[in-house]
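writing this on my phone so excuse typos. first protein, seq and then structure
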Amino acid sequence: MKTTRLRRHAGKLALIAAALLGTQAMAAEQGPTLLQNKCMGCHIPEGNDTYSRISHQRKTPEGWLMSIARMQIMHGLQISDDDRRTLVKYLADQQGLAPSETDGVRYAMERRLNTVEDFDPLIGETCARCHSGARVALQRRPAQEWEHLVNFHLSQWPSLEYQAQARDRDWLGIALKQVVPELAKRYPLESPAWAAWQKARPTADTLSGQWAFSGHMLAKGDVRGVMTVSPQQADTFKVEVKGEYADGTPFSGTGSAILYNGYEWRGNVKVGDTNLRQVFAALDGEMKGRMFEAEHDERGLDFTAVKAGKPRLLAVQPGYIKAGDESEISLVGSDLSGKPDLGAGVEVTQVLEQTATLVRVKARAAADAQTGQRDVAVGTLKGGSLAVYDKVEHVKVVPAFSIARVGENGASVPKVQGRFEAEAWGKDASGQPLRIGYLPATWKVEPFNERAVEDEDVKFAGQMQPDGVFVPGGAGPNPARKMMTNNAGNLKVIATLADGGQRGEGHMIVTVQRWNNPPLP
């Protein structure tokens, strides 16, 4: 069956996501020829290098990659890696999404797989019960094409009408009569945003140069440095990063990147012995997105960068100081010059280092300093904030809900870790909630409910490490468990602050392997 074949090739589909990171960029010249040679056997020419179905959709690079991979897996398309890479580039450039059309759903491209989506019941019960709602929101089609998509789903997965949230209603009738018109309205093929972007889309050469960056990895901490972008062939770049984590661990390496549609940056950088992917939106002299390990996308860091020549105070690391305490604070940005100012009640006692991208200082907060956020400045450049607090009121575990997955133990699929930090909150001088930031904590897991107690989930599901990293158990049946079930579990994640002892709780499901792992979940 085609569905079985697709599932069997899921690992291959995940691997070919690397095709987005290739260096060939001959798309403008070769794209139309490839469409004719590779696609015209099934898709009818409509004139002016347009084709049935294909020319009536707009997608992200990942979306087009998945479409071509589906043609290979389900319809026998024969295409080389180089040609697939070129075709993805061409289609993403010609039929992509405007930046505003990706707002709010970039988490899918950035592999933020612990995101809890908030789509309305119509989309949630029809589409997002099988895959992310973001996968739907990251494409554009006219009504007829959305209808074709519904029919495709029903032909390929006919059992979907008998699944939960479908068997108790007229699923097909609702999908065709309600969902299709709504999707065509929300996500139309033509839009003012796309028309405007095509006219204003910048060229790739605007990205060459040095970029100051800051970031944060859960369970590891803040990171900062400089990324150098050097132009290669059309729309491709050589990338070099030089930086470090707040604990002094180096964060340096080299790689390459490609730009799609004027702003969709996809990179592949080897930092130390680790291959990291970059998924950024590059707009107006700024880059924002996520870097994550190619084999472990749960191990990733938020990333923000600004290009040299655009003065910007990017980050304050750490973003907090306790009243009466002294602390080392780093200000990260571009074109930094002048005297650092951390706000009322916070004195800069010593400047340890000052460059155009980093100002490191020792600071002391007065014992009677008012609690609350302070605007931070370097010379006349303002940006970022510093939280002054006197005590922690409560703690949140971040993420509040997480999924870890068993793996390895002879299986081909790696474990998916849970990674957590303790987010401390206090009150400002007016009594309003004040986010302090991530503070050191001790970690443990407990059973989430009575069933988890009965099944001894804490014993079997995995181990919580001192740094807030949960390592799940091995894959496969476990003879030591009741009915030889696997090492799944339903757990509370408990953080206890090292200073003060306040406790926060999160929720983690430890479940089975992620067999179907496409570029867009």
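second protein below, same order as before
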Amino acid sequence: MAVEIIMPKLGVDMQEGEIIEWKKQEGDTVKEGDILLEINSDKTNMEIEAEDAGVLLKIVRQAGDVVPVTEVIGYIGAEGEEIQEGSSSAATADLVAAGLEVPKAPAQSDAPAAKADKAPLADNEYDIVVIGGGPAGYYAAIRGAQLGGKIAIVEKTEFGGTCLNVGCIPTKTYLKNAEILDGLKIAAGRGINLASTNYTIDMDKTVEFKNSVVKTLTGGVKGLLKANKVTIFNGLGQVNPDKTVSIGSETIKGRNIILATGSKVSRINIPGIDSKLVLTSDDILDLREMPKSLAVMGGGVVGIELGLVWASYGVDVTVIEMADRIIPAMDKEVSTELQKILTKKGMKIKTSVGVSEIVEANNQLTLKLNNGEEIVAEKALLSIGRVPQMNGLENLNLEMDRNRIKVNAYQETSIPSIYAPGDVNGTKMLAHAAYRMGEVAAENAMHGNVRKANLEFTPAAVYTHPEVAMVGITEEDARAKYGDILVGRNSFTGNGRAIASNEAHGFVKVISDAKFHEILGVHIIGPAAAEMINEAATIMESELTVDELLLSIHGHPTFSEVMYEAFADVLGEAIHNPPKRK
């Protein structure tokens, strides 16, 4: 069926656009991503790309026409295809009524038609069997139930997955302790005179509190599943090609299977790595005796966060990172600033170096680095990332991308009706990305492949003190891809709330293209960065330009004023920045 080309809505205020020029003519072959036409809104000219491949069958509105947003201006389809005007609009209305995202029309080979009427389910048969109760899994199960499906979920340990049990939630509990200790250090300067500044860390109580937080949340997930009438199976699910799942002696069957098995700690094969004094990020969260020294192998998000926790407790922490800077996926300027701040907090950071051997002697470790240095520590933390968890999936002959399950935009694997959202596909190993992939997989399993998972504007954060967060691409990547870009900055050093809170350090950086002021990336190091980045992600998902964002008003005094001023600085309009040199 021919696909409509519509006048796009490029901003919240845009009501209509003028067609400047069609770059393709009727009968021309069009590839996805080709420039179809140029339009003018009330703000700027914009080239519109084809979202589908085919032949430009018909141009409905010509150059010079002013067209309301969402009105049809042309059609793309197969050569010689007859246009049934209005047909796709009806389909769109049906999707909206169902509460689903309106997808672009997929290529014939990319997505099968919606699933046909179903025969009644057998007692041990389900619309969807979900394997794994982490973020992708429990979201998929609940979304499937909301859509009227009979859903089962199989979990071998605790619900909530890595994030809730041994990842983001426990580490944030410990990082709050680090923040409290930072507060004690500055109390006297704020006029709060404590009877004593001496303190001790009770690791038993610390671990117990962390466990209570985890238990509350895992119990909450299980309660939500039960409330949505999801059938729960405890044990390792062995998945078979015929879509049966064996849990011990019991076997169930799914018309669709969602593989949400998550990830496990990645390991390296070097001499001495199996020492009991070498802990994983899972192990260290249950450590009840504080070491005097800790060597952290890996300066990524988890290594830096946990390193800061132990450094705040007074442990001598050394971070060893093979890249030229910590958290190398972050913007270089932000990474460099964070490294300076953490060094001032007492953390030792060694970059561009790796560990070649670990020697255990006299209840301590000697880490031999590949530059000839040696580091002695009571304990070591192995924190070099995570890899997909494939236990229970051995019988499936799935197409893989290295050690990750290969999925398409609908989260479907190479086996029809088997989906693999979350960490197991290695696309974006973040809990909130897994949430989205899980719900998309469930909707596609229930309705046929109707929705794609758009992860382009997924925010990421590091919960150090100060926090670090980003969405979009870095300045380095933007310059490589676009060449001509604009960069705006504003510092927390002049922000009223930051100064009043003893948190006047860090900055916000905004990157945009030079022509249309499209926002390419936002990078923050400073207070509440992990909260503010969500606003930036929403702005980018909504395709607001810098100019449109500056029409908004941010409250005062707030940390988020710094982000607003960084947007203004892109255009040289930041009030609280010195004038830019001409």
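The radius of gyration is 27 Å. thats all i got for now
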